[in-house]
Amino acid sequence: MVFLPQEVIAKKRDGERLSSEEITAFIAGLTNGEVKPEQAAAFAMAVYFQNMELDERIALTEAMRDSGDVLDWSDFDGPILDKHSTGGVGDNVSLMLAPIWAAVGAYVPMISGRGLGHTGGTLDKFDAIPGYTTSPDNELFRKVVRETGCAIIGQTANLAPADKIMYGIRDVTATVENVSLITSSILSKKLAAGLDALVLDVKVGTGAFMRTAGDADELAKSLVNVANGAGVKTSALITDMNEPLASAAGNAVEVRNAVRFLTGAHQDKRLLSVTIELAALGLGLAGIESDMVIARQKCQTALDNGAAAERFGKMVSMLGGPTDFVENHDTYLPVAPIIRDVFADREANISGVDAKGVGMAVVVLGGGRKTPGDQLDYAVGFDRITPIGTKLDANTPIARIHAADEDSASEAANRLRKAYQFGEVGASSELFHGLITN
Ligand code: URA
Description:
The protein is an alpha/beta fold. It has 17 helices and 13 strands. It has a 4-stranded mixed sheet, sandwiched between helices. Strands 6-9-11-7 form a 4-stranded antiparallel sheet, sandwiched between helices. Strands 10-8-12 form a 3-stranded antiparallel sheet. Strand 4, helix 10 (213-229) and strand 5 form a beta-alpha-beta unit. The model has no long low-confidence stretch (mean pLDDT 96). The structure holds uracil.
């Protein structure tokens, strides 16, 4: 039968269930140009209002995954493992997690993205390292994964191209905020990386895209069910984003925080807990260690004995960065001309944080994008960010700012102060809000 895109759109518009063949044909048409952008926009809006059942979401994810290259690691002698975070502020977990997994026997070909809105992006953080290439050719990518166990790079040109087209259309047609579309978009790219197992970190709170427990739970369940339905062993941890996770937010400042974490020079408590929990979960899914207590110990040991730091250093060096980056990162990372403490205007306990406000202050400094093509200033951001519950006084600042000039420093400092709430008492939220397994 001749495929007519308008018939598929009408069916979804009227609330009917689409067959796997119809979804596959629609996405194939979108990829080869037979389905026009206005038809894809109408399809996205129909899905926005009518949603999709699990089998439809799986078909959409698989069709978008198969619209381009699907990586094949069958000649590797260990499990292929990755993580995806739905995005937050001060979330540099990937920088530690990939080398920890590499040190305990997994292969981690991590294809990461740029910052989105107020959230930071792993790719932008690696671009802060001089010489490091986030777009190696396929041969180098495989060589780095094989020899170090991990390689963190950007999306290759032909990875899930249907998602690239669809995402661009959703972005300008008010159809981003739909769980079916978000699920297929995130997973099509991750699944095209040829994974055996995937750990999801679904963030909830003031600095997350999902602000309520209900929304985070719905997205986590959708992601877990679709990924497992598409053949990748997947679980999701729902974690707190009611304050920055690391004590740094920005690009070079988060890389510095990560290197110090890996070497044991400084480890933020909540960041350590989330990293170890996600790492242990991954070992279970990848079939490396099913006992969570032992899995946590193995990951902690890889950190403590320097094995993870060594993997990180080797990855940086093989991808073009300095060979002594771990040891001498301070001499390589860009430094902002203005570095100073930001104090609150009174002495009080920090009782809450609008973490999105902190992320937007980083954007104001030039560490995130105001418009899509913006060039970032990798040096700017905040470090020494104080956790909820801390009593601030004349000697205890909220954070230390790294800025390019006085104007942006002053605006970002004001935004930071506004993002903090003060009261008699304050305590950080629970770090773990739920675990979704198949
Ligand atoms: N990130 C993605 O890759 N896709 C979405 O739809 C939302 C967030």
